[in-house]
Amino acid sequence: MAAPTPTVPIIRRDTDRDLLRQAPKHGRLELRSATLGNVKIKFLLAAGLLVCIGLSLYYADLLKAAFTVNPIPKSPESIARGKSIFERDCVVCHGAGGHGDGVAAASLPARPKDLSKLAPPPIFPDGVIAYRIANGKNLMPAWKTMLSDNDRWDLINFIRSLAVSSTK
Ligand code: HEC
């Protein structure tokens, strides 16, 4: 097989040069529009880059949360602490078993999801639950200022124990 010969680009370049020589005005116009095209592409690239940076800043906390490891072992003591916080702060909406059937749930436009059926990690990592509890979402209140980090991990250990006890 013979290697492909680069005849086409050479011919094109020659033709372009001929055209430029024959019609300098036309050539200048074309040059100008080529530069404009370049500027437009650069603008689009810059805009795309800005959007990417914006998105990653916006989701940075969530991304970081996804890789945050629960520092508190799922011990009976932690689960018991989580249970008592849950009974104090969360049961009104989420119900004692986390099924989304608390007394206040009926008045909510959308019932909270069943916490005993939360997907296990790595689909729904502990860190993301911690993020949800800390920052809230729609009608779910944010607990960042009300609960300490350790309170939140205890709650998560309790919530995880709901799934275990409901599959048994
Ligand atoms: C005022 C009622 C209310 C209270 C109180 C409340 N929640 Fe929620 N929670 C909700 C609602 C509603 C949602 C669903 C939010 C959505 O996705 O729109 C939710 C969602 C969640 C989720 C995310 C579930 C998912 O599938 O994304 C977690 C985890 C959670 N709540 C934990 C808690 C914990 C822990 C507490 C107590 C510290 C608590 N909630 C207190 C109403 C409440």
Describe it.
The protein is mainly alpha-helical and 168 residues long. It is 62% helix and 0% strand. The chain has two domains: 8-58; 71-167, Orthogonal Bundle (Cytochrome Bc1 Complex, Chain D, domain 2), CATH 1.10.760.10. It has helices at 7-22, 24-58, 60-66, 76-89, 91-94, 126-135, 149-167. It binds heme C. Heme C binds at residues 89-90, 92-94, 104, 108, 112-113, 115, 118, 129, 132-133, 137-141, 143, 155.
Question: Brief description of this entry?
Answer:
Helices cover 62% and strands 0% of the residues.
Sequence-ordered SSE layout with sheet pairings:
Elements: H1 7-22, H2 24-58, H3 60-66, H4 76-89, H5 91-94, H6 126-135, H7 149-167
Bound molecules: heme C.
Heme C (HEC) is lined by residues 89-90, 92-94, 104, 108, 112-113, 115, 118, 129, 132-133, 137-141, 143, 155.
Mean pLDDT, all residues: 84
Number of strands: 0
**Helical/strand content category:** mainly alpha
CATH fold naming of the largest domain: Cytochrome Bc1 Complex, Chain D, domain 2
Determine Rg (CA atoms, Å).
30 Å
Q: What is the CATH superfamily label of the largest domain?
A: Cytochrome c-like domain
Q: Assign the CATH class of the largest domain.
A: Mainly Alpha
Strand content: under 5%
Order of helices and strands: HHHHHHH
CATH architecture of the largest domain: Orthogonal Bundle
Provide a count of the helices. 7
Helix proportion of residues, in percent? 55-70%
Oligomer: single chain
For the largest beta-sheet, the strand count, sense and barrel status come to: none
Q: Number of folding domains?
A: 2
The poorly predicted ranges are none
Distance between the termini: 69 Å
- Overall geometry: elongated
Distinct small-molecule ligands in the complex: heme C
